[in-house]
Design brief:
It contains 11 helices and 14 strands. The protein has helices at residues 2-10, 37-45, 63-68, 80-85, 100-106, 120-133, 137-152, 180-187, 224-233, 244-248, 254-268, and strands at residues 12-16, 22-26, 32-34, 52-55, 70-71, 73-74, 77-78, 90-94, 112-115, 162-168, 173-174, 191-192, 212-216, 238-242. Helix 3 (63-68) links the parallel strand 4 and strand 5. Helix 6 packs antiparallel against helix 7 (137-152) and helix 7 packs parallel to helix 11 (254-268).
């Protein structure tokens, strides 16, 4: 009761984030800092042109924000003093993207809503929850409906086909189970041959011969010159360069990603 009265007096509400933390946030945040590239793009999609005052150096979309918004360091090397000077009334972070120490430091002076997206369903839930936090329920519910229709049409794209999705070279890491990328692969109907959790080295998977090897454009920028190496390692697989943003960015990016999977990726298979 005391907490309720305090929130009412301060014009704040209690929200539960994806780490199951209670977060006290102003009813209408006016100074938002985003620590996550895909969520920066999502905030732009929702129309927070004036409210977003700080982004990371990896928040490259939209280009106009990347050029004009205050940059507050990298996702894992945040400039805490610079963020504090911006006096945010909401910071949006992510368990995988940001470090625990940085989040602990930021909590001392601003509310932080943390996302934790390891699957397609987690991403949908994140959109829904942030819609409430940001008073954008209608736009977010419409996006969720559109995503449902878009992905229902491509759920058999990779039916009966297997994939290894590489995110790094030297050492060669792949996207495994309990990752958003892995979930997207399975949402498209593929079997993910990386049976281990998170991002294992390919050598830990044993002998496997997927139908396809996807070489991602990020975080490691695979190029044509890398295809020969992986073709030698997987002689029976088809090696394909793919747009990593389409597989790994959650939020509003998931809608154009569905078009990418339907139109461009399908032609490469």
């Amino acid at each position: 009761m005391i907490l309720y009265l305090l929130c009412h007096k301060m014009n704040t509400r209690i929200f539960v984030d994806q780490l199951n933390r209670d977060v006290l946030i102003n009813n209408a945040p006016k100074r938002i800092v985003s620590l996550v590239p895909s969520l920066t793009e999502f905030l732009h999609y929702l129309g927070f042109e004036e409210e977003v005052i700080g982004i990371t150096k990896f928040c490259i979309h939209p280009t106009i924000w990347f050029e004009k918004k205050e940059r507050i360091g990298g996702t894992k090397r945040l400039n805490i003093d610079r963020i504090k000077a911006l006096e945010p009334d909401l910071i949006i972070g992510n368990k995988e993207e940001n470090t625990k120490d940085d989040i602990s430091a930021l909590e001392c002076f601003a509310p932080i809503w943390m996302s934790d997206v390891n699957s397609f369903d987690d991403a949908i839930e994140m959109i829904k929850q942030l819609g409430v936090v940001l008073s954008k329920e209608r736009a977010c519910n419409t996006l969720i409906t559109d995503l449902g229709f878009a992905y229902s049409a491509i759920r058999d794209l990779g039916k009966h086909l297997s994939v290894l999705y590489f995110i790094w070279d030297k050492p060669s890491y792949v996207a495994g189970q309990l990752t958003f990328i892995g979930s997207i692969i399975e949402t498209l109907g593929f079997k993910n041959n990386a049976h281990l959790e998170r991002y294992p080295e390919v050598q830990d998977l044993g002998n496997c011969e997927p139908n396809y090897v996807f070489l991602s454009s990020e975080p490691f920028p695979f190029e044509e010159k890398h295809k020969e190496k992986y073709q030698s390692r997987f002689p029976r697989s088809k090696i394909i360069l793919v747009d990593g943003e389409m597989f790994s960015w959650y939020g509003s990016r998931m809608l154009p990603a569905a078009d990418y999977f339907k139109n461009k990726l399908k032609k490469l298979l």
